[in-house]
Amino acid sequence: MKRKDFIILLWISLGTSLFFFLFFTDEHSLKSFMLTLLISSMYSFLIGIGNGFINDFLNKKFPWSEATTKRAIVSIACILVANFIIVYFCNYMNFVVFQKNATTEQFFSGKYNFTNWFMVNIALLISAFLHAKGFMEELKKTSRKEVVEQKLIAKSANAQFETLKNQLDPHFLFNSLNVLSSLIDENPKQAQKFTASMSKIYRYVLEQKDKELVTVEDEMEFAKTYCELLKTRFENSVDFIFDVQKEDYRRYVVPLSLQLLLENCIKHNFATSSKPLVIKVFSENDTLCIENNLQVREQMKESAGIGLANIVQRYSLLTKRNVFIEKSEDYFKVKLPILMEKPNVISAQPNDNDAAYEKAQKRVKEIKSFYSNLISYCIIIPFLAIINLTTSPKNIWFYFPMLGWGIGLVAHGMSVFAIGKNWEDKKIREILEKQNKQ
Question: Which of 59, 262, 304, 382 is 20 to 30 Å from the Cα of 107, by its Cα?
């Protein structure tokens, strides 16, 4: 327990000792007050520290956030046994050792059964309050931790996506300048034409690189323009075939994905007029396919692998669907998922768990409602008991609200932890399974 808890227990001991000393003690002397303070401290510290130790131990073994139902059952069993032992020990020390109002035989003969029973109930109420407080504190910690984790995940996803997108700008410019450099020596007129076309294409790169997704139609128009640029350099050495279904035009793909894959086809394969490189772009089973005949050229240096890896990583942040790669002796094919709708990078993952999140949120509200009811019970019933025993000790009436409210509290607890929504969901599944089998 923390230092703060000890200070609270000390103030409780002082407050209860003053209350009993002023209203229930005949002899108002320093010795009498010190005895009352000793007895009050014994009850306060043993009940408080005992339940605090149980709560800390159970928090390590059965955290509320991981095993709520199991923790509730274990907590009830532990506080019943522990408080029964603590109260009997405190009452024995109080009546037999300190005040000497009874002998050991009288204490265990049944003379103090009502007192023991009453004190056990008070201890259980205090214990329930302490455990409920512990539950609420852990619930707040867990909620704060989850919020921080989600913020970190969101920031990480944003940063990762921005990094991947920022690769495209210099990557495209570097490769285009390489092509332009080659054309300047080979065909200066074509180099001028290439420069004019490159400015149009680069404008599209700047416009689209900050978007998560673009329509297939926009990407196809850009790809055709880019292919014309490649034709300027390679002429009859490269052929392009486009066969994308019109219904796929309004769907979505990762921007600049076609440009990167077309560039890869050129970079990793040789192309001549006698052996032209044929690149096909077509749609197939909700995928956009880029296929080329395999004419692998010898690489002077190892490729950086930015193109395809960039596309795969960006798709992984947007959807659970994978980018597929097929390779044989004759061809190389990449299949890009065509997405039906435009997801958000940050909310894509949580949206898949909306139903589970709402269910968990509802579950937390049910548990909080039960513990609010329990805390109210722990505060009001002892207050009513003190009023009853102070004003009319011969007419015990506080049993009725205690039992009535207690039965309602037990029913509430059973509905939350034992036979609540989990039981209903289980029965619904069983009925549906039986109907499906018939």
Answer: 382
433 assigned to some structural domain: no
The answer on 310 and 183 residing in a single domain is yes
Domain that holds residue 258: 153-351
pLDDT given at position 176: 67
User: Are 330 and 416 in the same domain?
Assistant: no
Burial 56-70 (b: 16+ CB within 10 A, else e): eebbeebebeeebee
Q: How many domains does the chain have?
A: 3
CATH classification at residue 216: 3.30.565.10
- pLDDT tens track for 19-56: 777 777 777 788 888 888 888 888 888 888 888 888 88
One-letter-per-residue 3-state SS of the chain? CCHHHHHHHHHHHHHHHHHHHHHCCCCCCHHHHHHHHHHHHHHHHHHHHHHHHHHHHHHHHCCCCCCHHHHHHHHHHHHHHHHHHHHHHHHHHHHHHHCCCCCHHHHHHHHCHHHHHHHHHHHHHHHHHHHHHHHHHHHHHHHHHHHHHHHHHHHHHHHHHHHHHHHHHHHHHHHHHHHHHHHHHHCHHHHHHHHHHHHHHHHHHHHHCCCCCEEHHHHHHHHHHHHHHHHHHHHHHEEEEEECCHHHCCCEECCCHHHHHHHHHHHHECCCCCCCEEEEEEECCCEEEEEEECCECCCCCCCCCHHHHHHHHHHHHHCCCCCEEEECCCEEEEEEECECCCCCCCCHHHHCCHHHHHHHHHHHHHHHHHHHHHHHHHHHHHHHHHHHHHHCCCCCCCHHHHHHHHHHHHHHHHHHHCCCHHHHHHHHHHHHHHHHHC
Q: What is the pLDDT of residue 347?
A: 42
Low-confidence stretches of the chain (pLDDT < 50) are 159, 163-164, 167-168, 345-353, 420
Q: How many other CB atoms sit within 10 Å of the CB of residue 86? A: 22
Tokens of 257: 């994905």
Examine the domain organization and report whether 84 and 175 are in the same domain: no
Residue 223 placed within a domain? yes
